[in-house]
């Protein structure tokens, strides 16, 4: 089954990567305050990548349960 690509998540990942690279450049130039947005951007991008992988694997991103447990009581 093919799932639709959620382009807003792809844009979030790409934006997070861009912000992280800019902040990494600033960190390497001695701006210690740039660590905070670097870590936040990297964490958000990583979370979105994992969500996109989960959706690609089981077709849905809203449920963390394996398919054989879909009808099990919560």
Q: Explain this structure to me?
A:
By secondary structure, the protein is mainly alpha-helical. The chain has one domain (7-59). Helices cover 62% and strands 0% of the residues. The chain is built from two helices and no strands. Helix 1 (7-28) packs antiparallel against helix 2 (35-58). It is elongated. The protein starts with 6 loop residues before the first helix and ends in a 16-residue tail after the last helix.
Short structural summary:
The protein contains two helices and no strands. The protein is mainly alpha-helical. α1 packs antiparallel against α2 (35-58).
Q: What features would you highlight for this structure?
A:
mainly alpha, elongated, 74 residues
Q: What are the SSEs and their pairings?
A:
Blueprint: H1 7-28, H2 35-58
Helix pairs in contact: 1-2
Say how many strands there are: 0
- What is the count of DSSP helices, taking H or I runs of 4+ residues? 2
Would you list the SSEs in sequence order as H and E? HH
- The overall pLDDT, averaged over residues, is 83
Low-pLDDT parts are none
The overall number of domains is 1
Give the end-to-end Cα distance, rounded to a whole number of Å: 26 Å
Helix content: 55-70%
Q: Please report which band the strand proportion falls in: under 5%, 5-15%, 15-25%, 25-35%, 35-45% or over 45%.
A: under 5%
The best one-word shape is: elongated
* Biggest β-sheet description: none
SSE-based structural type: mainly alpha
Radius of gyration: 17 Å
């Amino acid at each position: 089954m093919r799932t639709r690509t959620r382009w807003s998540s792809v844009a979030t990942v790409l934006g997070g990567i861009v912000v992280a690279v800019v902040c990494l450049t600033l960190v390497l130039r001695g701006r210690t305050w740039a660590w905070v947005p670097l870590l936040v951007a990297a964490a958000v991008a990583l979370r979105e990548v994992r969500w996109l992988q989960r959706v690609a694997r089981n077709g849905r991103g809203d449920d963390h349960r394996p398919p054989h447990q879909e009808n099990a009581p919560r």
